[in-house]
Amino acid sequence: MTVLEFDAVTKVYSVRGAGQFRALDDVSFTLRSGQTIGLVGQSGSGKSTIAKILTQLESPTSGEVRLDGEPIPRRGKGLRAYRQQLRMVFQDPFASLNPYHSIRYAIERPLQLDGVVPKDQLDDEARRLLGRVRLDADAVIDRRPHELSGGQRQRVAIARALASRPKLLIADEPVSMLDVSIRLGVLNLLADLQREEGLGVLYITHDLATARHFSDEILVLNQGRIVEHGPADDVILRPQNAYTQELRAASPDPDRFFTHAAGTLGGQE
């Protein structure tokens, strides 16, 4: 089992003319393979800072991130090996794929860089990955991102994230920029892949309805601090913290959302 520990992490930014800003304040959680944790909070709560620290785009001011008990390397082969274990699906499917390269290139490039399969198996593996995200490989593999819908692009981005055969996946608002009618299909795909591949998934969202539906546990983040943490149903249905209660009151009814989404879902967009 792969275990990622985010231990007592604080992140402070220096803001010109405004002093210091504490984006994270003593945040701790543990993500294990086969588990989905929903990280919920409004814009500015610190969710993206957590994602940046996990992907080593930022360093914590204090605290530590560990993978299987070992601190995350900051450079060299150790950092590259860590990044092969942890991949990210970004929020914007329109910006996360290079418009000048084909879908084939987007999938085969990480396969080559990480030496996942021999060179003569790249095409077969790329097609297998596209099939795993329920896309017709023959129809999309030689097209460019602008020729695909938003939902198809996000599925390609998921396939690319899976190419290195990671153990952990960060999904940062993966459906917020997609049409409502296709969000449920992409989220169900992520849930199926999480279960079938035994992935640990950190699902970052402001949407309590989907967080409850797809997460085992939920962390509620407010102004850089975790204010509530527990099993998904307990946090959403019986929130203890006033901030969580406010989020719950402002959110659509989860059952109504999924009933509506299922009724409008069509195709594999």
Please tag this protein with its features.
11 helices; Rossmann fold; alpha/beta; 10 strands; single chain; disordered C terminus; six-stranded mixed sheet
Could you explain how this protein is built, in words?
- By secondary structure, the protein is α/β, with parallel strands linked by helices.
- It has a single domain (36-56, 81-264), classed as Rossmann fold (3-Layer(aba) Sandwich), CATH 3.40.50.300.
- The protein is 40% helix and 25% strand.
- The chain has eleven helices and ten strands.
- It has helices at residues 47-54, 76-85, 103-113, 122-132, 137-140, 150-162, 180-197, 208-214, 232-237, 242-250, 254-264, and strands at 3-15, 19-32, 36-40, 62-67, 70-71, 86-89, 168-172, 200-205, 217-222, 225-231.
- The strands form two sheets. The chain has a six-stranded mixed beta sheet with strand order 6-7-8-3-9-10, with helices on both faces.
- It is globular, with a radius of gyration of 19 Å.
- Residues 264-268 have low confidence and may be disordered.
CATH topology: Rossmann fold
Radius of gyration: 19 Å
Oligomer: single chain
Point out poorly predicted stretches.
Answer: 264-268
CATH class: Alpha Beta
Overall outline: globular
Record the strand order, biggest sheet: 6-7-8-3-9-10
Q: What is the N-to-C order of secondary-structure elements (H for helix, E for strand)?
A: EEEHEEHEHHHHEHEHEEHHH
Q: What proportion strand?
A: 25-35%
Continuous helix count: 11
The domain tally reads 1
The helical percent reads 40-55%
CATH fourth-tier homologous superfamily: P-loop containing nucleotide triphosphate hydrolases
Largest sheet: 6 strands, mixed
